[in-house]
TrEMBL record:
Highest taxon in the source lineage: Bacteria
Name used for this protein in its record: Bifunctional oligoribonuclease/PAP phosphatase NrnA
Source species of the chain: Maribacter chungangensis
Pfam family, one: DHHA1
EC number: 3.1.3.7
GO molecular function per UniProt: 3'(2'),5'-bisphosphate nucleotidase activity
Enzyme class: hydrolase
Glycoprotein as UniProt keyword: no
Keywords, alphabetical: Hydrolase
InterPro entries xrefs: DDH_dom, DHH_sf, DHHA1_dom, Oligoribo/pAp-PDE_c-di-AMP_PDE
DHHA1 domain mapped to chain residues: 245-316
All copies of domain DDH, residue ranges: 18-169
Amino acid sequence: MNLEHINALKTLLSLPKKIAIIPHKNPDGDAIGSTLALWHYLKGKGHNAMVVAPNDFPKFLKWMPGAESILNFEKENTQAMDRISSAEVIFTLDFNHLGRVGQMTASLEAAEATFVMVDHHQEPSDYAQIMYSDVRMSSTCEMVYHLLTYLNAEDEVTSEIANCIYTGILTDTGSFKFKSTTSTTHRIVAKLIDKGADNTAIHSRIYDTNSPSRLHLLGCALKNMVILSEYNTTYITLSQEELDQYNFSKGDTEGFVNYGLTLEHIRFAVIFIENREEGILKISFRSVGDFDVNHFARKFFEGGGHTNAAGGKSDASMAETTRYFESLLPQFKKALTL
Ligand code: 5GP
Ligand code: MN
């Protein structure tokens, strides 16, 4: 974050403000962890802050300190709209353009607040007056830690803040596995443990909360897996009917796409998940090495993200979408098999 923006932020926060903190739609561990960590900090400094999420978030994140006070734009619409329109400052965390908040986009576009972006996705748009965007960062949570350092607030990291930040780093790095995990990430994680992050408990609250039906859904997903050895590519499909059969609840398919990458030689793994209510297929793309799924998702599936993890969507049927997907692979054969 450059000095000019750090100073602008310090000035902005020098007096108590009315603040809204916004994660992206279908918030994950990094989005909820970063917004709650910032919320705890701002509240502690005497600001009137509130996290407003576009929609609900998975059960395995509900234990997080402060999670119960998050406003849900879908369910608590009047209160959420009021907070956004009356906020003096709006922080947007873990996303790079306003379209990523779904039905909340228009309210944010109409808001008169000063916008502050903290994000690690590629190609950020320029709606924010104060920007901290760095695609090399493991997670927005790691950035929130840096941000607190820039505000000279490292000593104000409470155990609540530490637990929130730890969670987002854990989930966005695939448990410290992805390439974006640096020695700095590990140094921050060490400090977080010293400040009260309960690493073992967090890991088990995130990853050891399977219901039998979720494991059965995973079984169904793995059975549906298609392996295209010629392109070192694999994909999974899950229809709405299959989701219904296994009592799908939000967050149940989190991480399924990564199973594809555990196959030897596979470089590109994809999951297509039907959402009948929205009339779309939600798609997750993952890669290892240089194959750029951000570019792929952006170009062919109205999405984006990072080099090795991105998302997108399709309005066509499952059969049409997977046929289209397969038809794209020959042009990437070299990149996928070199
Ligand atoms: P996931 O596949 O876990 O939903 O998302 C992987 C990464 O891509 C995340 O960093 C997420 O924020 C980003 N992402 C997911 N869906 C979209 C999308 O539709 N558009 C953009 N720009 N990014 C996305
Ligand atoms: Mn993130």
